[in-house]
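W.,

You were right to be curious about this one. When I first looked at the sequence I had no strong expectations either way, so I just let the prediction run and decided to look at it fresh. Below is the sequence, 207 residues in total, followed by the output.
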Amino acid sequence: MKIFIFVFFFSIINASDYPNFTIQELHNIEKKSGSISKNRIIDYEQSIALFKKYPKSKQLIQVNFYLNKLLPQYDAITQKQEDYWSTPKEFLITGYGDCEDYVIIKYFTLLKLGFKEEKLFLTTVREKYYGGYHMVLSYFKDKNKPPLILDNLSFKILDIEKRVDLEADIFINSSGVYKIDKEYKLTKIANNFKQYDNLKEKIKNKK
């Protein structure tokens, strides 16, 4: 029974149709958050339906460009707490997010478009020139090659070698937490990441 629940749970969070909204959800969102939120969600769903017709290379560009148009805002302002990971649904409803929120919605949107999860990673990076930390989405198009970086601070997608301003720290997805070596080989360092586990729990609860 536990095995069944585990498999069912992961089938939910990795389902190719997430995030999706029922008619009742849209009605409730409009009632609670207004028509702007509802229309933002409808526009997202229509745009993703259009992107499905494109080749993978163009889908990457379109997803990065489209979602980067959502407005940035620190978690402390939008969520009244630090380092809050919004689900794609929460982000689309509010229309504001921090760097990790862009990464999360891009991650699930690309899964929705048929990208393989083993090629996609939420990635913490160090900003070499500013000394702070940031989060981007990494896409390993080819094994043991530098990943492409989708960044909410850039409409241009470059591989990590060309992002001389960034130094990769850790790579996260449902399979675990990884480090990368100079040959761009991923080595697993942990099975879980607390914030990612919390995110999955919220998604399981249909948020």
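Here's what jumped out at me. The chain has one domain: 2-204. And, maybe more interesting for your project: The beta strands are 71-72, 96-97, 120-127, 133-139, 148-150, 158-159, 166-173, 176-180, 186-190.

Coffee later to discuss?

I.
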